Automatic annotation (TrEMBL):
Keywords of this entry: DNA-binding, Transcription, Transcription regulation
Pfam families (alphabetical): HTH_1, LysR_substrate
Matching InterPro entries: LysR-type_TF_proteobact-type, LysR_HTH_N, LysR_subst-bd, WH-like_DNA-bd_sf, WH_DNA-bd_sf
Protein name from the UniProt record: LysR family transcriptional regulator
SUPFAM superfamilies in alphabetical order: Periplasmic binding protein-like II (SSF53850), Winged helix' DNA-binding domain (SSF46785)
């Protein structure tokens, strides 16, 4: 058997991995319960052993060198494998699968279905963290995230979930208050929730209509479809909503989609997780379940 290079001390590897993840010796020290000087010393030991600098020291924090970035990815993955090995010895997975998710997806897709995942995976505890802003998955702020974007995030893996299609919807309360929408042209004068939404112009153009002028409208937004759908159900106006989110409401008559025309409202929705945690049993189980659920949901539409 060929001679093997001796491994560096695990303490030094842990200090390096944490500093690389945070971009800070101070924050690494806080996480590991060490002093900043101790973290610096451990990383210096690792650099001496490697024979190359792993960080560039800067006035505010540190930055990985190309050699450091290469080692950081492998070190993080190696530590994750160790964590999973010890978890398997305890016959458990991670303590909690934290799912960071945008509000509309949480309320309309994940919330009503997550019990199925929990029933199929009773050993995996789950927690939903509703957050419109991206969380730091590398730093462990969440296990996985449901994000809107182009699918390209450094150090991340992303699985496509759905295209963000959107179409006008109304409710029985709207019809009672304003009357039915019998033709496309009725929408030109109908009251609209968030009338300045940029997708309205795309929808009118797809319908072959000239969009009404919104120049003098004040910019109004509700921040999420979970609020806009409530306005629609209350009959306040015609609302642009995503049909995939509201299959149940459309089926039971709470919402009405008066026209078949749908347009894309923005960038796709993705399931995202850290590259170095791709082999996590809990993440793999959740990924497999969610992709199957989304396939069923999209096909049903």
């Amino acid at each position: 058997m060929p001679d093997q290079l001796p491994l560096p001390p695990l303490t030094a590897v842990r200090a390096f991995e944490a500093a690389a993840r945070f971009g800070s010796f101070t924050r690494a020290a806080e996480e590991l319960g060490m002093t900043q000087a101790a973290v610096s010393y451990q990383i210096k030991q690792l650099e001496d052993r490697a024979g190359v600098p792993l960080f560039r020291r800067q006035p505010r924090g540190v930055q990985l060198t190309p050699d450091g970035a290469q080692l950081a990815a492998r070190a993080g993955e190696a530590l994750e494998i160790l964590r999973e090995a010890f978890a398997e010895l305890r016959q458990t997975t991670e303590d909690t699968l934290v799912i960071s998710v945008i509000a509309a997806f949480a309320a309309s897709v994940l919330g009503p279905r997550l019990w199925q995942f929990q029933a199929e995976n009773p050993d995996i505890a789950t927690r939903i963290d509703i957050n419109q802003k991206p969380v730091n998955l590398e730093a462990g702020e969440a296990s996985v995230a449901i994000r809107i974007g182009d699918g390209n995030w450094e150090g991340m893996r992303a699985d496509h979930l759905m295209r963000p299609e959107i179409t006008p919807m109304i409710s029985p309360a709207y019809i009672e208050r304003h009357g039915p929408l019998t033709c496309l042209e009725d929408l030109l004068t109908a009251p609209r929730v968030v009338a300045g939404h940029p997708a309205w112009d795309r929808w009118f153009e797809a319908a072959g209509l000239t969009p009404p002028c919104t120049k003098n409208l004040r910019d109004k937004t509700m921040g999420s479809q979970i609020f806009e759908v409530q306005a629609a159900k209350a009959g306040q106006g015609v609302t642009l909503l995503t049909p995939t989110y509201y299959r149940r409401e459309l089926a039971n008559g709470e919402l009405i989609q008066p026209f078949d025309i749908v347009v894309e409202s923005g960038r796709p929705v993705w399931l995202v997780y850290a590259e170095r945690r791709r082999k996590s049993p809990a993440i793999r189980a959740f990924r497999k379940w969610l992709l199957a659920e989304m396939q069923t949901l999209v096909v049903a539409g």
